[in-house]
């Protein structure tokens, strides 16, 4: 507990003047480059017990409060007022003699240094046979006065910037704001319900092992199809997937890898024919890096497709994966907003030349990804995480336990172990959109049916199917007929199909270009689909072939 000490003399018989009894204390006039501690010990108004305890001088009028070190020269503190704060000594601590002026600690050649305690164990043993106690001796940090001056100057600028950013008048308001934001970002994953739900959903997460290539993480998306990163199949610039989608390495998915004893593991082989493999940039110039794999056996875990959701721009997230090919781990963290990504990189640099070199090298080696993240229209989710190599392909959950993205990469560098400046994930809806379009182009009715059936059980994924049907109609080609029919027939099996049907009818009627598309020669299949499902009603006469709502 800290105690505030007033500047009145502790001796009631003192002849001090009233001016000496004010609560704020003025530093004495400079005398031969005197330090603060020397000035206080020579002042004579303080009891010796004050110097036995640990105390700090705080400038009275500064915001934020500025502390003054005891070894600072008083010639730069003239006419300023301070408060003295004492730290109460524990009753078990033995008192030591107060420092005297002219002692080794106060020599002029040490006035530009900070005294740091160094522990040293005494070799003597007490009469009671007590173990030796540690004694502390000071260690000098050279040129610390200049360092303190620089840091204080930088801190003042930082406070001004934070006041402006958070629209606060005082430093205390900034601290309150930051404390509140930190609490908001971490409290979401401290609730027992959320933790239990994440543990339940983690059963769908598995370790992916591409033999002789790489290890990573994946998760059951729907039915018996696994989603992971495409770069897990790349080594030394070569992809181990050919143009026909055949994997030239053995691949396994291991579930339940949670216990270090590796009991209850469930290893399932992956079929050598890959379902979808996309790496690079899509038609909208968005980064894609994903592979959809098919398990040899059907896993009993629940797919996470029904828990897919658009990514939030702020808030807490949690990753679940297998970093380093080890046991399954979780890491709650916070989204770094797009406009603050530059700050995240700058925060890591400027510490020392070696660190700057390592970080800049990492950025240069991943220049394409760096430029991608710094674009104003970047769609990736960014954050700081301790899950590095081997965590690629991990699902990223939001605070509602919805899957919003798939962890993909970062900017790693080696400094006493592997570290990373910032990490990023590809939004799940970007992946699902590209996956469905590919299945549509291939007319893969089986997978489209399974995907739709699973997606209709989730709130956000149901809306995703609705938007996919609109895409099929808007971008209609005769080759889309099989895909549209398969998806719609699956929708009609769902209990919510009437609501979706009504929404589609309203949308079609409001879109003149869609109604005109129905009349174009070659689009008879689309016209027939609309009529059969009563999405539009056409006149029965040949002369009036305009669509009307039912």
Structure description:
This is Serine protease FAM111A-like isoform X2. Residues 112-126 have a biased composition (Polar residues). InterPro entries: Peptidase_S1_PA. The chain has 550 residues and is an alpha+beta fold. Helices cover 32% and strands 23% of the residues. A hairpin with a 7-residue loop joins β17 (316-321) and β18 (329-334). The longest helix has 23 residues, at 144-166.
Q: What's the end-to-end separation, in Å?
A: 78 Å
How many helices in DSSP terms?
15
Query: How many beta-strand runs?
Result: 24
Helix content: 25-40%
Q: What's the shape?
A: elongated
Mean pLDDT: 78
Q: What's the alpha carbon Rg, rounded to whole Å?
A: 34 Å
Strand content: 15-25%
User: What is the makeup of the main sheet?
Assistant: 7 strands, antiparallel
* Major beta sheet, strand line-up: 14-13-8-9-10-16-15
| Structure classification | alpha+beta
Low-confidence stretches: 1-31, 89-128, 539-550
Organism: Salvelinus namaycush
GO cellular component, one term: chromatin
Protein name: Serine protease FAM111A-like isoform X2
Pfam families: Trypsin_2 (PF13365)
In short:
By secondary structure, this protein is α+β, with helices and mostly antiparallel strands. It has helices spanning 36-43, 48-52, 144-166, 171-187, 192-201, 341-348, 353-365, 367-374, 428-442, 445-455, 459-474, 481-493, 497-510, 512-519, 524-532; strands at residues 2-5, 25-26, 54-59, 67-68, 81-87, 114-121, 134-141, 205-210, 214-222, 225-228, 234-235, 238-239, 251-255, 266-269, 276-281, 287-294, 316-321, 329-334, 381-383, 395-398, 403-414, 418-427, 537-538, 547-548. A seven-stranded antiparallel β-sheet has the order 14-13-8-9-10-16-15.
């Amino acid at each position: 507990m800290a105690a505030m000490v007033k500047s009145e003399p502790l001796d009631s018989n003192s002849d001090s003047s009233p001016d000496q009894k004010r609560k704020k204390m003025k530093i004495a006039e400079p005398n031969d480059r005197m330090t603060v501690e020397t000035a206080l010990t020579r002042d004579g108004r303080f009891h010796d017990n004050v110097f036995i305890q640990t105390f700090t001088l705080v400038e009275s009028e500064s915001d934020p409060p500025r502390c003054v070190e005891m070894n600072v020269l008083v010639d730069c503190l003239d006419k300023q007022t301070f408060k003295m704060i004492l730290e109460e000594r524990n009753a078990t601590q033995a008192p030591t003699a107060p420092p005297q002026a002219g002692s080794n600690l106060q020599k002029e050649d040490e006035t530009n240094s900070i005294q740091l305690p160094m522990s040293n164990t005494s070799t003597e043993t007490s009469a009671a046979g007590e173990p030796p106690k540690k004694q502390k001796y000071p260690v000098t940090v050279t040129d610390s006065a200049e360092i303190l001056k620089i840091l204080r100057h930088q801190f003042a600028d930082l406070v001004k910037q934070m006041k402006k950013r958070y629209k606060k008048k005082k430093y205390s308001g900034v601290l309150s704001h930051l404390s509140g934001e930190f609490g908001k970002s971490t409290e979401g994953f401290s609730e027992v319900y959320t933790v239990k739900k994440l543990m339940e959903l983690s059963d769908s997460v598995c370790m992916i092992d591409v033999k002789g290539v790489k290890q990573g993480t994946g998760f059951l998306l729907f039915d018996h199809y696994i989603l992971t990163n495409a770069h897990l199949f790349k080594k030394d610039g070569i992809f181990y997937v050919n143009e026909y989608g055949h994997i030239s390495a053995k691949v396994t998915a291991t579930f339940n890898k949670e216990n270090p004893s590796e009991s209850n593991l469930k290893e399932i082989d992956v079929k050598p024919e890959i379902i979808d493999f996309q790496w690079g940039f899509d038609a909208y110039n968005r980064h894609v890096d994903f592979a959809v794999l098919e398990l040899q056996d059907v896993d009993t875990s629940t797919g996470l497709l029904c828990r897919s959701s658009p990514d939030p721009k702020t808030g807490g997230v949690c990753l679940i994966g297998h970093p380093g090919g080890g046991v399954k781990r979780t890491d709650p963290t916070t989204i770094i907003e797009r406009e603050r990504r530059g700050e995240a990189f700058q925060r890591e640099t400027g510490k020392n030349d070696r660190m700057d070199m390592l970080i800049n090298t990492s950025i240069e080696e991943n220049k394409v990804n760096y430029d991608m993240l710094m674009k104003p229209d970047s769609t990736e989710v960014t954050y700081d995480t301790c899950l590095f190599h081997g965590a690629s392909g991990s699902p990223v959950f939001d605070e509602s336990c919805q899957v919003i993205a798939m962890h993909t990469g970062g900017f790693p560098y080696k400094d006493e172990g592997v570290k990373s400046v910032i990490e990023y994930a590809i939004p799940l809806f970007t992946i699902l959109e590209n996956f469905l379009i590919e299945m549509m182009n291939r007319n893969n009715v089986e997978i489209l049916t399974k995907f739709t059936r699973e997606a209709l059980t989730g709130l956000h994924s149901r809306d995703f199917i609705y938007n996919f049907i609109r895409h099929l109609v808007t971008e209609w080609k005769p080759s889309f007929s099989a895909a549209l029919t398969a998806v719609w027939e699956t929708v009609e099996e769902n209990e919510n199909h009437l609501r979706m049907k009504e929404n589609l009818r309203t949308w079609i009627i409001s879109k003149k270009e869609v109604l005109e598309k129905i009349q174009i020669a070659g689009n008879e299949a689309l016209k027939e689909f609309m009529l059969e499902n009563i999405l539009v009603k056409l006149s029965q006469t040949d002369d009036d072939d305009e669509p009307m709502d039912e």
